Every structure is written in structure tokens, then in C-alpha cells.
Structure to design on (170 residues):
């Protein structure tokens, strides 16, 4: 595998998210096409993407058509808007992996949709989505919602370097 990326809360096909989150798009079609282009501009075929939930509001065929257009090996951690469809639905829609629960990445990063409770004595970082334009202060949370990152997936190194001082050379 090549590089590893993280992103969340695309809400493909969800026209109301444009108003809810003040997204700069005229309609859902423009939003979807822009987000697909931004994903493919940074993610290559040999890369892996952890999508931290709330991927699509579309039916399975239309969701699958989007998943097929996105580069990389795609691992979905189900978000609150994804869970009603179940893990198998997302696998059938084209994700390579789908997790119903948070996972631990590199023994240090908790990957989840909703932010997890992290007290100040914990050395870990929670990489999450769900809260869109909001942001938690401090070093224990890293919000990868599309609104914070110009609708573009972030590399693991971008996240690591932002939350673990002195790790840039690792």
C-alpha cells in the first residue's frame, strides 16, 4: 500500500448539508463532483483511505457509482447516518472494508465517527468526524470533517505532525 488518508462527512447527495454547513456549492451535484475531484487529486490507486463516516445519502446504486470513481482502498467506519444500512450494505456498495465500531490505528490513534471522550492524561489522539465545522481544542482530538480541509483527504503524516510534536522526521 502507498499512503494512508483520512476524511469524513462527505454526505454525498445530501442537498440540505449545503445550507446546514454553509458549503460553497450551488447544488448537490456540484458538491459531489467537486468532492470526487478533490479526493482523486490526492489519493492514488495504491493508497488507503479511512472514511470516518456519513459517506452518502444516496441509494446503493448511486453510492456504488461514486465509490467506484474514488481512488484507493476504501475503509468505512460507519457514522450515525450510515448505521441504518448496516455493514454489508456498504461492502455491497463498494467499500473494501466497513467497521461498525471505532478502530485503533498505529497503537495511538482512535478512529471513530463521533468524538470519543479523551481525558487530559491519556496519551492518545481521537481522529474523528461528525461535528462538521466545530472543533475541539487541545491535542486529543483531530477533526477530519470535509469542511475543515477543503473537502480533501488528509495524509496520516499531516495528522501526525499536527498532533505529535517532534514526530516530523519519523
Amino acid at each position: 500500500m502507498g499512503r494512508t488518508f483520512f476524511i469524513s462527512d462527505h454526505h454525498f447527495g445530501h442537498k440540505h448539508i449545503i445550507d446546514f454547513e454553509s458549503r460553497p456549492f450551488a447544488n448537490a451535484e456540484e458538491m459531489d463532483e467537486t468532492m470526487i475531484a478533490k479526493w482523486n487529486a490526492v489519493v492514488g490507486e495504491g493508497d488507503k483511505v479511512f472514511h470516518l463516516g456519513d459517506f452518502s445519502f444516496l441509494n446503493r446504486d448511486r453510492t456504488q457509482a461514486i465509490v467506484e470513481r474514488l481512488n484507493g482502498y476504501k475503509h468505512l467506519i460507519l457514522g450515525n447516518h450510515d448505521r441504518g444500512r448496516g455493514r454489508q450494505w456498504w461492502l455491497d456498495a463498494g467499500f473494501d472494508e466497513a467497521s461498525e465500531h471505532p478502530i485503533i490505528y498505529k497503537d495511538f490513534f482512535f478512529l471513530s465517527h463521533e468524538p470519543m471522550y479523551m481525558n487530559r492524561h491519556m496519551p492518545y489522539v481521537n481522529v474523528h468526524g461528525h461535528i462538521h465545522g466545530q472543533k475541539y481544542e487541545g491535542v486529543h482530538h483531530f477533526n477530519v470533517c470535509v469542511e475543515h480541509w477543503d473537502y480533501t483527504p488528509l495524509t496520516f503524516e499531516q495528522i501526525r505532525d499536527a498532533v505529535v510534536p517532534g514526530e516530523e522526521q519519523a
